[in-house]
Design a protein that fits this description.
By secondary structure, this protein is mostly helical. Among the domains are: 85 residues, Ribosomal Protein S8, Chain: A, domain 1 (2-Layer Sandwich), CATH 3.30.1370.10; 95 residues, Ribosomal Protein S8, Chain: A, domain 1. It is built from twelve helices and six strands. The chain is flat and about 105 Å long. The termini are far apart. The N terminus is likely disordered. It holds the Pfam family KH_PNO1_2nd. Keywords: Nucleus, RNA-binding.
């Protein structure tokens, strides 16, 4: 028993050293694996950056090639009006209020002549429905002609003179805009009447001043206001009218219009 004791002691002493070596080996292998994984990740990132740089260089080369190549634009031939019609004729109807029957009757030939001879359309007044009917025909060459004719007749029905409304047929940058006094401010009774009086002025002076300064035409029909002109000029006239409705004195409006007229002259 005494002889066996040293061996047992040696074994018991050596076992912890082996375990420590195994632990060191495991820790070293883990550390190596981590370093290897980190190195692999870095290599993958470098490869990706090199690939991105190569793609960018290739794209730059393609762009340079595209810039050097002549640009080829696709040109489409104009479509004939007959193909757009599809064999169908368009009809527009404009209702005429009772107070515009006599003016329409008196100015019928002035309305009929440009619509038929210039726009190549058909027009008639339906006595039963009280509508002015405009229709395209085989001689109509422009597709927008029926819209121009409808705007022309609608402007006359709203109260504009035939000569002023005819500008809608001759020019493309003219528009119609309508709004009411109550759209700007809720007024009733005498307050509404005073607002309309401020817009018109004594003997129509204020209205004529706004028309001449902004190069527009204005119609006051009870509480409705109709403006005919270009987009920019309509905006100027509408701003002046809205200020009058809100209660600004005409003298202040005259000053603003004078400044607008001076700026317009300077621009020319």
């Amino acid at each position: 028993m005494c002889d066996d004791l040293p061996e047992l002691i040696d074994v018991s002493v050596k076992q912890p050293e082996n375990e420590q070596k195994d632990e060191f080996m495991m820790a070293g292998s883990k550390r190596k694996n981590r370093q290897k994984a980190k190195g692999d990740a870095e290599m993958m990132v470098e490869d990706a950056t090199f690939e991105d740089e190569d793609d960018a260089v290739n794209e730059d080369d393609d762009m340079q090639i595209d810039k050097n190549d002549p640009v080829q634009r696709i040109s489409f031939p104009p479509v004939a009006p007959e193909k757009l019609k599809d064999g169908k004729f368009e009809i527009r109807k404009i209702h005429v209020p009772p107070n515009r029957f006599n003016p329409l009757k008196d100015s019928w030939m002035k309305i009929y002549t440009p619509v038929v001879e210039y726009l190549k359309l058909q027009i008639r007044f339906n006595l039963k429905s009280r509508n002015v009917e405009i229709k395209t025909c085989e001689e109509t060459t422009e597709i927008s002609s029926i819209q121009k004719a409808a705007d022309f007749v609608r402007a006359f029905v709203l109260g504009f003179e035939v000569e002023d409304a005819l500008a809608l047929v001759r020019l493309d940058d003219l528009f119609l805009e309508s709004f009411e006094v109550i759209d700007v401010r809720r007024l009733k009774g005498d307050h509404l009447s005073r607002a309309i009086g401020r817009i018109a002025g004594k003997g129509g002076k204020t209205k004529f001043t706004i028309e001449n300064t902004t190069k527009t035409r204005i119609v006051l029909a009870n509480s409705k206001i109709h403006i005919l002109g270009s987009f920019k000029n309509i905006a100027l006239a509408r701003r002046a009218i809205c200020n009058l409705i809100l209660g600004s004195p005409p003298s202040k409006i005259y000053g603003n219009l004078r400044n607008i007229a001076s700026r317009a002259l300077e621009s020319f």
